[in-house]
Design goal:
Layout: E1 6-7, H1 15-19, H2 30-40, H3 42-48, E2 52-56, H4 60-72, E3 76-80, H5 105-114, E4 122-125, H6 131-135, E5 139-143, H7 147-160, E6 163-170, E7 173-179, E8 184-186, E9 196-202, E10 209-212, E11 225-229, E12 243-244, E13 246-249, E14 252-254, E15 269-273, E16 277-279, H8 284-289, E17 293-294, H9 303-321, H10 330-341, H11 346-350, H12 356-370, H13 377-396, E18 405-409, H14 424-427, H15 435-441, H16 443-450, E19 453-457, H17 461-473, E20 482-486, H18 511-522, E21 528-531, H19 545-550, E22 553-556, H20 561-574, E23 577-584, E24 587-593, H21 614-619, H22 624-639, H23 641-651, H24 655-660, H25 663-677, H26 684-707
Parallel strand pairs: 2-3, 2-5, 3-4, 5-6, 17-18, 19-20, 19-22, 20-21, 22-23
Antiparallel strand pairs: 1-4, 6-7, 7-18, 8-16, 9-10, 9-15, 10-14, 11-12, 11-15, 13-14, 23-24
Helix pairs in contact: 4-13, 9-10, 9-12, 10-12, 15-16, 17-18, 23-25
Length: about 725
């Protein structure tokens, strides 16, 4: 077998730039990757920059993964998909255009992917996908391939020591699988900063109970490792290395036998020590037979195994017929169900024939089979984001990888929650770019999506993703439809790492305008109006009653709570639905607000930050934040509180009567008023004398404390 050729036509001009990114003494463009570095750190980033990634399959899911991986900054991305692009691909493949129909998907996609990151070469793999070709990549991601082909690629990855990821979506259903080898090393399982805290006691016995200061929970879990410093009395703990702990309560844990140590007297700090972990994965054939699931929806606890069987049954149907089941084909759905029932574990998971459990599982597998040819941009975005995150884990060893299967479905999006099958006329292809979406949702739903009028507030990372999904879905693209996106911000270089609608030549331009232009290229039917106005009290003349009255709903893509609360109040007033979301590093949240059905965004608030007791600040500071707060209090006492008291005294006639009712602060407040209003220096000479006096007094006090003697002696 000859090694296939790799064409790099779209990125050959980047060679000089890429050379600067070699991993030995690598230069990281911190202006570009600043936000990502906050999460991953430099070491993990350098590991990613040493990783070559192969992505097999370039429909909607494959291009989502490729887009995220390129933005992440790996060493290189190579694409493999020799199949010709079809019109139905445009339902989710945002880097294909109508003029690309008939071209190789990888060939048409590579140049547009290459624009996302000048440091990541994007190449196309031509020829056969041989074991030798697979062995040249550290990470291989497979989408849309039959299980037999995926198994062959998985075996080649196992032999070469590569990491393997399998991802698929079928309409409203999706699955993800990871195999990182028999012994994959995880450097940091959660990515959180190591915790530390001050000790109050350590018992001298076989259990060795450590009690922490009662202000802050230790935040540890069983099996975590800790070390100790500055312990008085039981000095054997200092520098003794890390040791595992067993949690006894929120403020205590045991470290094992301390009976042979000295008695604890005072002081000391505990520091968590992150430990590397070795994680073992099963290869694909074994994992199919003995699956280990990560549950994505605890309201559907039985779903993972049902979908595990359903996905295998779909693959068996494809192997027998050469294609996936046609939409709304009752006979094909029945065959998929029959094949699922022939698999091991089917009776336990799908229920005995005639039982209520069997009826529910039959409906589920019918909907899976009916929409199997469908491809929806939101489902591709969900699994494309998760698969790309697994690529980053495989490359860097940062964060615990998926072990090993994850399934997710959005069956509730079907009419009547999918209880009734869609008629064939609802899902039959019409030669439209939305054929793949209608195959899963039906044309009636597609027409409703086209007539929606939405307001998107913010065109940052989330805003770009929303606009892309909306354009692919045809939201606002039909008769009466419209999308308004507003954002007063301009594009910065650091935005390019995660806001994929922008390019380097867009820096300093308006986000909303550039985003609208990019979406227009992805779907010429998109009706997007770009504005630069903030949504707030000052723009209620622009976003007036008539504007809000025309909207179908609102989507927030904001970065601050105040703006979110304002939009939420407007949505309550005008009875509009609100989509609210946010991200923080690898974490994210989504809230759907429906008038008269759910609580609003403002109905619940994050708990306030924990305040620091005054007694701790004055007498027992034991953390860095305590000293910072002490400094702030001193600053306010010296430069703010006195001035505010003077202004209140001069402007409020009842200031002194009110002060009489506050005996605790009366004396100090009057003294401060006298110092600022009576004893204050007036001329420049008096100011200089006052300053010299203050400096001398400060010097006397500080020297007296340090030497315990007079400065004049």
């Amino acid at each position: 077998l000859t090694a296939p050729s790799i064409h790099n036509r779209s990125t050959r001009q980047m060679a000089d730039t890429v050379q600067d990114m070699e991993t030995d003494g690598a230069k990281i463009d911190e202006a570009l990757y600043s936000r990502q570095l906050y999460v991953l750190g430099h070491e993990a980033m350098r590991k990613m920059m040493a990783s070559s990634v192969l992505i097999v399959g370039l429909r909607g899911l494959g291009v989502e993964i490729a887009k995220n991986v390129v933005l992440g900054g790996v060493k290189s991305v190579t694409l493999y998909d020799p199949a010709p692009a079809t019109l139905a691909d445009l339902s989710a493949q945002f880097f294909l255009r109508e003029e690309d129909v008939g071209k190789r998907r990888a060939t048409a996609t590579a140049p547009r992917l290459a624009e996302l990151n000048q440091y990541v070469p994007v190449a196309e793999l031509e020829g056969d996908l041989t074991a030798d070709a697979i062995a040249s990549f550290g990470i291989v991601v497979v989408t849309g391939a039959p299980l037999g082909e995926a198994t062959r690629i998985n075996e080649a990855c196992r032999k070469s020591g590569g990491r393997f990821i399998l991802a698929d979506t079928y309409g409203l259903f999706g699955g993800l699988f990871c195999d990182f080898g028999a012994a994959f090393e995880v450097v940091d399982a959660d990515g959180e900063e190591p915790v530390s805290g001050m000790l109050t006691s350590v018992s001298q016995d076989e259990e060795g109970i450590v009690t922490m200061h009662d202000e802050t929970r230790h935040g540890l879990s069983d099996g975590d490792h800790v070390c100790f410093t500055e312990v008085q009395g039981m000095t054997e703990l200092n520098g003794s290395g890390s040791r595992p702990i067993k949690v006894l309560g929120p403020f205590s844990f045991s470290i094992g036998d301390t009976s042979g140590y000295g008695a604890y007297t005072s002081g000391g700090y505990m520091h968590q020590v992150k430990q590397k972990q070795s994680v073992s994965f099963l290869p694909l054939p074994q994992a199919l037979a003995a699956p280990d699931f990560l549950v994505s929806d605890f309201a559907k606890f039985e779903r993972p195994m049902q979908l595990h069987l359903g996905f295998q049954a779909l693959d068996a149907y494809r192997s027998a017929h050469g294609q996936l089941p046609p939409p709304s084909d009752a006979d094909a759905a029945a065959e998929v169900l029959t094949r699922a029932r022939e698999l091991p574990g089917a009776v336990e998971s799908l229920g005995a024939a005639g039982s209520p459990e069997a009826e529910a599982s039959e409906r589920l597998l019918r909907n899976l089979a009916s929409g199997a040819r469908g491809e929806l941009a939101p489902m591709c975005a969900i699994f494309g984001g998760m698969a790309a995150q697994e690529v980053m884990k495989a490359a860097s060893g940062k964060f615990m990888p998926l072990k090993q299967w994850l399934y997710f479905d959005a069956e509730e999006c079907l009419p009547a929650d999918g209880k009734e099958a869609l008629p064939p006329a609802e899902t039959a292809p019409r030669g439209s770019r939305y054929d793949s979406q209608a195959a899963a949702l039906g044309w009636s739903t597609q027409e409703k999506l086209g007539s929606l009028r939405y307001l998107l507030v913010g065109a940052g990372a989330i805003g770009c993703e929303m606009l892309k999904n909306w354009a692919m879905m045809g939201i606002g693209c039909g008769e009466g439809g419209h999308v308004t996106v507003t954002d007063p911000d301009t594009i910065e270089k650091s935005n390019l790492n995660r806001q994929f609608l922008f390019r380097p030549w867009d820096v300093t331009k308006a986000k909303s305008a550039c985003a609208a232009a990019a979406i227009g290229a992805m779907n010429p039917a998109a009706k997007v109006e770009a504005r630069l106005d903030r949504v707030g009290a000052e723009t209620e003349g622009i976003f007036d009653d008539a504007f809000w009255g025309r909207l179908s709903g609102v989507c927030n893509a904001l970065d601050n709570v105040q703006a979110r609360l304002y939009v939420d109040q407007r949505c309550i007033y005008y009875q509009k639905s609100l989509l609210e979301s946010g991200t923080l590093g690898p974490k994210g949240n989504v809230q759907v607000v429906v008038p008269k059905l759910t609580e609003s965004y403002g109905s619940s608030r994050d708990p306030p930050e924990k305040s620091i007791p005054v007694c701790t600040l004055k007498n027992f500071p034991n953390q860095i934040e305590h000293t910072i707060q002490w400094s702030r209090d001193c600053f306010e006492g010296l430069f703010r509180q006195g001035a505010e008291d003077v202004n209140a005294y001069l402007s409020q006639p009842d200031f002194l009567p009110n002060l009489e009712r506050q005996p605790g602060v009366r004396k100090t407040t009057l003294e401060a008023l006298a110092a600022n209003l009576v004893d204050k220096p007036i001329s420049l000479e008096q100011c200089v004398v006052w300053l010299i006096t203050q400096l001398i007094n400060l010097l006397i006090r500080s020297t007296s404390r340090s030497r315990s003697s007079s400065v004049w002696s």
